[in-house]
Amino acid sequence: MQLGMIGLGRMGANMTKRLEQGGHEVMTYDPKVASTASTLAELRDQLDAPRAFWMMVPAGEITESTFQQLLDLAAPGDTIVDGGNSNFHDSQRRYAEAAPRGIHFVDVGVSGGIWGLEVGYCLMAGGDRDPVARIEPLLLTLAPENGYAHVGPSGAGHFVKMVHNGIEYGLMEAYAEGFDVMRGSEFDLDLHEIAGIWRYGSVVRSWLLELLHDAFEKDGSHLEAIQGYVEDSGEGRWTIAEAIAEDVPVPVITAALFARFASREDESFAAKVTAALRNEFGGHAVKSAEATKQ
């Protein structure tokens, strides 16, 4: 099957390779890569109608700009796929904008990271049945066996991926806290070894644990070379916002997001307030900021 892949970053480039290895013909466009089409219009002209365009670009302004350009370039019957981490509300809006023009829009949540080229990508597709069925040969090539599903109507793919990433926040934070407790214990524990044995037979075994074991192997059990600064790309916030709208409690995901916020502070002002209050009401000693610097 033919496809126009837009965006050749870490994900898009590997997905393109996997599709080509699976026998598909993939035309590409990335303004930062000289060997691709020079414009989206040129990419369109390289494809036979009805065309399929796959956006694999950062969520937000770049996705919106690319989508609007494709709306003007595409013809009725063409399909635009968004495989990035877009907010599902934006995907529903884009579907509604494309439909009157006879252009199909499919949102696909993609999980697998840099390992997807080798082991495949878990894919969660949202949209109308016919356009999803049309691009299904691509989806089946990208996914490992049993790793793809058409999960629902427009927006459902990105909604499910959003919740997936929220769960990921909680899982990673639980591992992080547990290993931190072990690191600070009275025992001289080999965290690399423990992560290793937990991969076999343990109820907490997972792919994330395997990756942590690999990280310890590369960077040492105390991860000395890694700064404890953790960004978030939005999905955790969106998951919590939807949970609030649905009156669903998500304390673990919320705490995991707040832990990421805390990781970015050189010094917590909230902790200063708490220390000052303890000193004021109870006479508890405070540590001087100047003394700490020395």
Topology:
Blueprint: E1 2-6, H1 10-21, E2 25-29, H2 40-45, E3 52-55, H3 61-73, E4 79-82, H4 88-98, E5 104-111, H5 116-119, E6 122-126, H6 129-142, E7 148-152, H7 156-183, H8 191-197, H9 207-219, H10 235-245, H11 251-263, H12 269-282, H13 289-293
Parallel strand pairs: 1-2, 1-3, 3-4, 4-5, 6-7
Antiparallel strand pairs: 5-6
Helix pairs in contact: 7-10, 7-11, 8-9
Describe this structure in words.
With 294 residues, this protein is α/β, with parallel strands linked by helices. It is built from 13 helices and seven strands. It has a seven-stranded mixed beta sheet, with helices on both faces. Helix 7 packs across helix 10 and helix 7 crosses helix 11.
Any idea what the radius of gyration is?
23 Å
Which regions are unreliable across 5 or more consecutive residues at pLDDT < 50? none
Instruction: Give the ordered list of helices and strands.
Output: EHEHEHEHEHEHEHHHHHHH
Number of strands: 7
What does this entry show, briefly?
This protein is of the alpha/beta class and 294 residues long.
Which labels suit this protein?
alpha/beta, 13 helices, 294 residues, 51% helix, seven-stranded mixed sheet
